[in-house]
Amino acid sequence: MILIRGGTVVNHDHSWRADVLVDGGKTVAFGPALDAPAGTEVIDAGGCYVMPGGIDPHTHLELAFMGSVSADDFEWGTKGALAGGTTMVVDFCIPDPGQSMLAAYQDWRRKSEKAACDYGFHMAVTSWSKQVFDEMEIVVKTYGINTFKHFMAYKGALMVNDDELYNSFARCAHLGALPLVHAENGDVVARMQESLLESGMTGPEGHAHSRPPLVEGEATNRAIMIADMTGSPVYIVHTSCREAHEAIARARANGQRVFGEPLIQHLLLDADEYQNKSWDHAARRVMSPPFRDKRHQESLWAGLQSGSLQVVATDHCAFTTEQKRLGLEDFRKIPNGTGGLEDRMPLLWTAGVNSGRLTKEEFVAVTSANIARILNIYPRKGRLAIGSDADIVVWDPSANKTIHAKNQISRIDYNVFEGFACVGAPVVTLSGGRIAFAKGELRAEQGDGKYVERPPFSPI
Amino acid sequence: MILIRGGTVVNHDHSWRADVLVDGGKTVAFGPALDAPAGTEVIDAGGCYVMPGGIDPHTHLELAFMGSVSADDFEWGTKGALAGGTTMVVDFCIPDPGQSMLAAYQDWRRKSEKAACDYGFHMAVTSWSKQVFDEMEIVVKTYGINTFKHFMAYKGALMVNDDELYNSFARCAHLGALPLVHAENGDVVARMQESLLESGMTGPEGHAHSRPPLVEGEATNRAIMIADMTGSPVYIVHTSCREAHEAIARARANGQRVFGEPLIQHLLLDADEYQNKSWDHAARRVMSPPFRDKRHQESLWAGLQSGSLQVVATDHCAFTTEQKRLGLEDFRKIPNGTGGLEDRMPLLWTAGVNSGRLTKEEFVAVTSANIARILNIYPRKGRLAIGSDADIVVWDPSANKTIHAKNQISRIDYNVFEGFACVGAPVVTLSGGRIAFAKGELRAEQGDGKYVERPPFSPI
Amino acid sequence: MILIRGGTVVNHDHSWRADVLVDGGKTVAFGPALDAPAGTEVIDAGGCYVMPGGIDPHTHLELAFMGSVSADDFEWGTKGALAGGTTMVVDFCIPDPGQSMLAAYQDWRRKSEKAACDYGFHMAVTSWSKQVFDEMEIVVKTYGINTFKHFMAYKGALMVNDDELYNSFARCAHLGALPLVHAENGDVVARMQESLLESGMTGPEGHAHSRPPLVEGEATNRAIMIADMTGSPVYIVHTSCREAHEAIARARANGQRVFGEPLIQHLLLDADEYQNKSWDHAARRVMSPPFRDKRHQESLWAGLQSGSLQVVATDHCAFTTEQKRLGLEDFRKIPNGTGGLEDRMPLLWTAGVNSGRLTKEEFVAVTSANIARILNIYPRKGRLAIGSDADIVVWDPSANKTIHAKNQISRIDYNVFEGFACVGAPVVTLSGGRIAFAKGELRAEQGDGKYVERPPFSPI
Amino acid sequence: MILIRGGTVVNHDHSWRADVLVDGGKTVAFGPALDAPAGTEVIDAGGCYVMPGGIDPHTHLELAFMGSVSADDFEWGTKGALAGGTTMVVDFCIPDPGQSMLAAYQDWRRKSEKAACDYGFHMAVTSWSKQVFDEMEIVVKTYGINTFKHFMAYKGALMVNDDELYNSFARCAHLGALPLVHAENGDVVARMQESLLESGMTGPEGHAHSRPPLVEGEATNRAIMIADMTGSPVYIVHTSCREAHEAIARARANGQRVFGEPLIQHLLLDADEYQNKSWDHAARRVMSPPFRDKRHQESLWAGLQSGSLQVVATDHCAFTTEQKRLGLEDFRKIPNGTGGLEDRMPLLWTAGVNSGRLTKEEFVAVTSANIARILNIYPRKGRLAIGSDADIVVWDPSANKTIHAKNQISRIDYNVFEGFACVGAPVVTLSGGRIAFAKGELRAEQGDGKYVERPPFSPI
Ligand SMILES: [Zn+2]
Ligand SMILES: [Zn+2]
Ligand SMILES: [Zn+2]
Ligand SMILES: [Zn+2]
Ligand SMILES: [Zn+2]
Ligand SMILES: [Zn+2]
Ligand SMILES: [Zn+2]
Ligand SMILES: [Zn+2]
Q1: Partners of residue A15 in chain B, C-beta under 8 Å
Q2: Residue of B112, B117, B185, B168 lying closest to B143 (CA atoms)
């Protein structure tokens, strides 16, 4: 048993002074001054907040992508997560061309055996056929996956067209699953890329120019319309710009069920990074959508404040500088992705809570409770409550942590947040009732995490 | 002890099958199959939802207003509330001209001794002076009132100007109180009234024409700006139209803390009522803001769905037909107000949940949990949780109830919802752990209710 | 010579009392009391407005479409136009599958020889290839066509995808031509059609359900984004709904050059028509986009008032009832199109000017001057000025005209505006300096019209 | 006679190559190669645009204001105007407290006798009474003034409240006059000023902080609502920020007749100026509304592009540095105002036309034609046409002119645009058919200007 003593418990809708008792992987009691049964390990949470562990619903661990494999696998990705207060990740299971979803699922289960924290999968729909139609049902009913991912970009690879989106969204609605969308107009991106390369722009700045905010705003608007036509809710991943956010907000203002997920990167970093004279510096920041002009950040923050955006994620997909250099001659070949799993929670606390933008309860909402509800695993995850999984972070709001690649758990050789001074960080992370991280020391082992099944028909 | 057996517990963020045990006025246990200790009264909730009792934050019981006194006093208003599943009301304490807030508070405590359910007060700021400035602190710190009401209409009576709003909002921000606003441009309403009367329109339809949506939208926008300038959040009462809702939504989209409260009347009834050939019919529906064209209803519903509007209230202020007839010659003299306390919950369930607009969890949010959080009495009120007040409604989603004035508890002789067929109604209401209403029979007694103090600095 | 005496000249920006002298096909003088040289024909315009003849930029005369040929050819279409005060039409030259633009142009020139008023063409881009790329230049430079039409709907037939739109828009930008877009998401329309037919809905009401406003709003938004990416302005034909209008207005509010064209049908008729029990009645009104709910009309009118929409057209594409019956078993086979050429100006005057929505100058703007400027033929067309083509309508604002199919010039057997009582109608129409219509009598002959070349790089 | 040879005539809706012949103060002929009668003065306009002279509808010449008198009187203000291509100004006639409008009008006529270019007045309504009501009619019918100005700010001085606005707007509607509004919430400004001074901020930066964009946006929204209630159009002067522009655009999008006037200052200068370490530098830029953050500029430019804003003015109200120093101890005492009359046209051309934001025709629209139409003096002013006043500017788009106070005509000792390098400037300005300015030399004399009467009921 573990007793977390002296802290303030923070849920998405309420906070109060209470000790928390954990046993058998579950939270079993709250109280103003709980007794510690013999043998209980006591964690001093004085001056700290005791919060549901973070959930990162957008990771790509050990992903074969663009001729490379992302450098953080399920072991190191989840270890980083735990060190940063995140206790569950949801990764994208993406079938190879021609591969069945069922086979892909098996591959992902195999890769994820090493996970140090709990995890689940989204399944990608990258083409449409009778087989896909049939397998979606198995994925939902047998594998406990209630979300399907769709790419409107990556033309010639993962991209699906409007007809396929319609079919898949309609199928999702029938199965009680939620469609997720990477929203960029892939046709236009491809043409912009060609056009920029023809004009001689081969460096990372070309990546940003080839996928401007309008291209994302358009696709977001389109995905939302298609969802509405099929009677399905829809979740837009990595909402990075005002135009996309406004498309979401417009739909919500009409009563439609639409969710938006800004990444911690887009909340804090901007397109000036691509102007850096160092190719490496710029290329390390290549991801899709790219970082945006600063004015977009205010829109994303306001979305979190007003509830038109619900979830902060990372799209953690880490590539080393060496891997990035695959695109030295052509920005289209730079593997897309950055890290963030270890840093999301301290960064968001620093920029969001310390600045007064978000209350601490809203911090819990956007890092954990909202996505748990959306994914239909609440309150098992996402809430501190009796009977819930003991995925708990003891958060010291006065802890200082400056981000340095040299200290990070991620396997890559840089950090896009290098030098950010965070105030507010986890002192202890409990995962499944065990101390996974404490006082700077990682105790979790590979394989500690469990696969989390998620039933369809989320009530949200 | 009372055991509610076999129902589905519904909170604003989650529902699950559980029995609920109540003791000493509090909820003490949840479980899939709780034992009933000897002497326990067992309520069969099979097929029912077990929800937090409703909170109506906008009532005017026994209010002296416009030359009359509203016909439902704290006894009959609260009894109606309980019969409809509402277990707490918040009434507006409005000082007479020249009266101190402290004296007004004593008057309201006296009037409210008869209340059959729990209650609290908002305090009205109807002028500005050193005395008002000083008394606001006492009201907050001594009386446990954390909200102040401001009228931008009722020129020559309750209306305050922009300077006074600024002063009071700034004072609220300092004290951790929340300003509430009745938002209509009183100057323009007064001029429109004159102009309509000059043109010979003296009937109730003139009431509606004199306060069109633009007039409310403008004042809402203005109140929000003033709140922003003073660093205060703001709560707009009886948001009735698209223009007002959009002003709120715009501010929220910029990250400002603004709340909006549609009334059940404006969600369901429209301005055609004022065209009724019967003067009585139309006059009974005279309230401010008036009912609006149907297109406004869609905006209000979408606001509840998307979260840009948070609370459904009634502005219950009941006048008999005889009282209404004070304005036979001049619509300005018709006492403003309608009933709704008994009907709010079944009507909202029918039109909101049965139609698919709202989930049952959202129903709890907008009838109870949201306002409890805003008023800083959550989770004591607004949530079914261990230790919370046992204000509970057992809700039968298949119960049929057609609204008829002849069956109502309210003291007035009509009901503006006459003939509405509700599907979904309370079968049992618990108030403070006692059965206040069961199977159509009212058991609560006058004086059963308690005054609820509310601390300032709500975390929301 | 012709002298128009005693009227008020109305241009888009100014009106004044003046006589107008016409000679040699041109307007040659204005003055308060011009002398009539010997042999001058004098038209009494007392109490009348003397305005630039209308330009209808959206007609389909003698179009082979959906297994039929539209019933009004260039002769009868343009004769109807003249009777209604319209003195120029712009028709869509649509190559057959595999046909070159150059051959299509020749076909259209041949068909249009019968035209009784001046005319021009837009050229449709229905696929993409090196040949199309090359021919576009010839179309612009040799044929005097400065507009290219694109269909985002009619999947499997005329529809082009985003890649093709991008290519063509970029080519337009290079050539100084303006892309026009029929904006509906063809993929989604096709799927909605299937789904409705599967559910057993085969009648004309299915047509409307298969292409709801969101589907048009989405495509409009997409076309605008693609135009912006290519640096091209864009013109959206038949803007029928709030969602499409708002997409246009949003883009304009960001400084983008986007134009929108509501049809007189969508301004006045609504979707209730498709509920008519008579299959014929409903089928005669089948066009794309379909008529919309009334609430959309207010949006379109406000767009004309505020300048976010610029042009009122007809999409005149008339099919007889017999032709419509091709779709008796399947709404997809009902030839799409309605008439309107003869009725546009009186209807718009009645509903727009007499209602106070539009000034008479704005009437000239949206029926003539704006499109003349957009098409780069201003002030030759679209303005009464010295040296301009004498395409002039003498408009009696007090003339009564009730629309009846039995009196119309169009070759079809019904009129979708049957029974509309117009107040305001042409008494005389001059086309190229000749009296084409006077006092109810048509004087124009087939072949009187001339082909109008339009240079690229419109300054608008 | 004067012949302007070889230029391109530019009107708001069309441009063409033509010579222009001027005689007797009017434009009398256009033609590709006009003959110059004997004695004609020929102006070479080769490579130049020949445009309607600018109209600045917002000046305060020789205004007694805030304890000072603005330094440019009608002589020097209008001479600067002519040197910059502006040939008419409209000044604000502002009665002293208690003074009748009729007396104020006489004062203004006296002051304006020195004007070197044509001029007119707006009349200010600074209080409400039977006398004001009556005098408004005389002002319109006898004095030829069709506009009334209202201040929502300057509390305790010029400010009027909502009731007074309503009365005056209704009166305007009856008389066919157009209400103009200075839109800032005066109550809130006054409270913000106090609060900033209390906090110790006494310098010019306090001026900006005391009147933030929200305060202007609110008042703009309010004025528009009141105008709508009275059935009057409304014109918002010096629209400086996104919030105000959006209020205007919202109203226009609903079909309301609302006009907005950005100043050249707000289009080009931003709030950083108030952070300048030099008190003089910052104080010289004190005007109301103050300069805004850069992001507002994009909104104003887009408004001009899309037509939701119609007019670019200056609010020319020049105070010397010495005058500004009246507010050394208290920013509230710094006389509000800056210059701009000489610079408006070259600055707008440089930043608007050379940047591609505006076409040359749109330049004419926003500097001259639109306001001429709004003020009902079109096409006498605002258009080059036969019979129009020969107020003409010959514009060399390649002329370079860098703004320096030492070269300016204005009587003040600095220029807020100091150092701006303009490309595009007048080479010759004709005023009333005479050469007022040519090749850098001012030829106009004091008293050359004439008072321009403006009839009510503008058709716009
Ligand atoms: Zn992605
Ligand atoms: Zn991703
Ligand atoms: Zn009220
Ligand atoms: Zn009330
Ligand atoms: Zn079409
Ligand atoms: Zn068409
Ligand atoms: Zn001003
Ligand atoms: Zn001014």
Answers
A1: 459
A2: B112
